[in-house]
Amino acid sequence: MRRALWRWAVGRSLALMAAGVLCVAGPALAQGAGAVPGFPVTVSNCGDTLRIAAPPQRMVVHDLNMVEMAMALGLQSSMVGVTGITGWYKTDAAFLRSLGTIPELAPKYPTLETLLAARPDLFFAGWYYGMQPGGEVTPATLAPHGIQTLILTESCAHTLGEKPRATMALLYGDLLRLGTVFGRRAEAERLIAQWRARVRAATHSPLPQPPRVFVYDSGEDKPFTAGRAAMPTALIEAAGGRNVLGDVAMSWGTSAWETVAASDPQVIVLLDYQNGQGPEHLQKILQAHPAMRLTEAVRQRRFVTLRYAELTPGPANIDAIEKLARALRQSP
Amino acid sequence: MMSPGADAATRSTLRRTVPPLLALALALLVMLSLTAGSAPVSWREAAAALAGPWAGLFGAPASDMAQAIVRDLRLPRVVLALLVGATLALVGGLLQSTTRNDLADPFLFGLSSGASTGAVAVITLTGEWLGAWTLPAATFAGASVAAGAVLLLVRRAGGQGPAQTVLAGLAVSFLFGALTHGLVFAGDQRAAHAVVFWSLGGLGLARWDNLWLACLGLAVLAVFIWRRHRALDALLAGDDTAHSLGIAPERLRTQAFVVAAVATACCVALAGVIGFVGLMVPHLARRLSGPLHAAFLPLAALLGAGLLLASDLVARTLLGSQELPVGIVTAGIGALFVMALLRRPAVG
Predict the structure, then answer these.
(1) How far apart are the first and last CA of chain A?
(2) pLDDT band at A268, cuts 50/70/90?
(3) Which of A233, A274, A291, B269 pairs with A22 at a CA distance of 20 to 30 A?
(4) Percentage of chain A surpassing pLDDT 90?
(5) What is the DSSP letter of A118?
(6) CA distance A158 to B114
């Protein structure tokens, strides 16, 4: 998980020092303030309040998961660009179709110049999802140019001291915020109701007790995985399982093989990077590991492969919950 | 720092008392390292797992998982920590003597940046073509290329003594560092993770089937030191004196450098770049034993092994279920140690 890795490599040290003070935009450049009924609106934004005077016309969205969120609400007509897609992922035809003519401004992280050149009024991104603390693209550096920033809630754990437990509210809440900002709250609520129904349907047969699940992203000397504040914890719990590292106070980060092996996971989620070194490689590492190969999941080959977009907050989370729920309910 | 430190009388007392104390401390550390860790394995279970056929002495036999954790994760890790700690301290001592530079350490000569470049190149460009041995092979190759480049530079410069070697090493370090960062920039996310591992070090890759590499590195060093320690002593008195004793300083320096490069590459291939051990331990050992290599280097090896084992114990247990890169711990302990040294004139 690239962002997660950077987040860990860079953010580890920064997180300790992070004051968590974000200077968010002052009053936005009101475009005919008061002209739009129901506006201005305010939404929470990493502990601050974001005040939107009118629905944004020129949004730039970073990363696959957030682009999929925006497209789920049908916001393509209000988008002028996306960033951080092709630098890391293979995209499928369906994704490109719904993206239509919206250009990709940068294959990985955008520079300030690239963003300004697109003259956006809103940037939808997150910490280590397109922005780095102290980097050139942050809410504080965009504000003087009249660009407001909507920050992915899951990523606030990196800049605020606390590491709140991830729940499905991370996805539902962010979709509601996005809907509110664009005056499409009703659509957002409808979509969330559909998602909730799908989760209920997938999990209607109860499990005697939550199966133990481990998320394996990468790393051979120590496993890189998801802790308490990262989205997979919420997905696993929604599917009826329990993340074996769900009590570790971190977002994405490294753990120790000993800890994981001793917790004896029954199902293991493998991250599919979709870039050649696939989940087979991760599976090989687990099967060769002297302690991991003794765990129930490896002995019975109970692996679930999920894509990056399915494990970071976005509409694909619901597919992930369905896959997980099925895997947890299969008799070993 | 080549000060005689303690006077002769104190030193002979030290020579009698230090090794047994060190051996005792090491034994204790090994026991602690096998029983402590992030997984809940009790003393009794750890003992039973290690006792093999005599497990009955400790009550019920250990579970399969406890056995795997103690025998196949912790035990090889302890062995690797001892081997790598000893190797790094020896390489540091050897390079400090031969370059007459107190700040020489195994990584001053581009070895670590070369190794990191090798690792990152594999991760970003080629993928695993040798299975589990790809990364060690690549780091080894990278470290060797870097060391070769340094030697070539020194040759071309006409081998004008130790200062030349240090400069050449720095230049090669920077070059390979730039290469590594270029690869990370162009590559994907996994490269970033790898860079953190190779640049801060860790002992998490220790397995029974790869320990031979660390043994090889230490063996090469030990043989060289055992055969050349008198010549190394002569070098301490300066190149002219060494000449008059029939020793070719340049040749000895090149030999020492090649041996150091091979040994360091073996370490880095398995454990990444663990800083401070090779820089600091030799100074401490020299203070206790004096500058003569026959006494100084074995003591450095013991101290290095102990320091790395203790550091890894801290790295594995400090944060519960998360492992710190061991380089963070060695650097922390090392910095405190150097500050303490600076405040006191001499041990004695």
Answers:
(1) 28
(2) very high
(3) A233
(4) 65
(5) T
(6) 32
Q: How many Å lie between the alpha carbon of A102 and the closest alpha carbon of chain B?
A: 24
Distance in Å, alpha carbon of B182 to nearest chain A alpha carbon? 15
Candidates A91, A133, A88, A82; CA nearest to A110 is: A82
Q: Is B340 exposed, middle or buried (0-12, 13-18, 19+ CB in 10 A)?
A: exposed
The CA dihedral of B37, B41, B47, B51, to the nearest 10 degrees, is -100
Q: What would the two tokens of residue B7 be?
A: 């006077």
What's the confidence (pLDDT) of residue B27? 92
User: Residues A40-64: pLDDT tens digits?
Assistant: 999 999 989 999 999 999 999 999 9
Quote the CA–CA distance of B150 and A16 in Å, as a whole number.
38
φ, ψ dihedrals at A82, nearest 5°: -125, 160
Q: Let me know how many helices (H) and strands (E) chain B has, helices first.
A: 14, 0
**Over the stretch B51-69, which tens digit does the pLDDT of each residue have?**
877 777 777 777 888 888 8
Q: How many beta-carbon contacts under 8 Å exist across A and B?
A: 103
Range in A207-221, A290-304, B98-112 with the lowest mean pLDDT: B98-112
Contact B229, B296 (CB under 8 A): no
Residue B318: how many other CB atoms lie within 10 Å: 12
**What are the structure tokens assigned to B304, written together?**
């290095």
